[in-house]
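Collaborator request, handled under Task 6.
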Amino acid sequence: MKKAVIIIAIVVAVAAICTVLILKVWPGVLVGSGNLETEQYAFGNFTRVEISSAFVFEIGYSDSYGINVTVDDNVMDYVQVTQEGQTLKIRLRTVPFLRRVTLRASVAMPELSGVTVSGASVGTVSGFSSTEGLNITVSGASIIVEGDITAGDIGFDVSGASIVQLEGSADDMVAVVSGASTFNLDDFTVNNAVVNVSGASTGIINLDGRLDANVSGASTLLYIGDPVMGTINVSGASTLREK
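Structure tokens returned to the collaborator:
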């Protein structure tokens, strides 16, 4: 028992020393304080949102605009929330290395025309219903899940081992899925779809109109419904079939 206690004490001491050394050798390392701070921002009249830097986010419908960011208090100075035209941007200034930090963002808005998510960010997009077009771009191991959207024409660009899983509906869809990404729209119905799946990616779509598809690089595209097959190209040990 005494030996175990000594070993644990040594491990703790070594870990503490290593942490100190890391902070001295790489002064850019930022360790979250654990004391959370929330900042509200008064931007408005934006229809697009860009989020990066590994934020956990919620983008939801509201009659009014609202932006809240919650992070460790020693991280707040690194947060950048800006508006460029109709685009709201949430990210961090360049930080070499982060450890044990909390990064949360909540955005409420009445109209959504575009979402861009990158840098291992994870979140939801829900509550929007419109006949206007919507473009969603997800990259860099980012994730959008548990969203509920109704839109006119919709476009997706999913890359870099990212994941998209949404419910809802749209008129026509154009989707590009690449780089070992996952695209799950089995509960998202569309009329016509043009889909390009590549690089060991997987897609599931739900439609009853025309399907044009290019599936390559050991990828899989599954479809739900009874689509009319348009231009179809399947190559490189890939699969296109009904789910």
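The cover message to the collaborator said: "The two ends are 57 Å apart (CA to CA). The first strand starts at residue 29 and ends at 31. Please let us know whether this matches your experimental observations."
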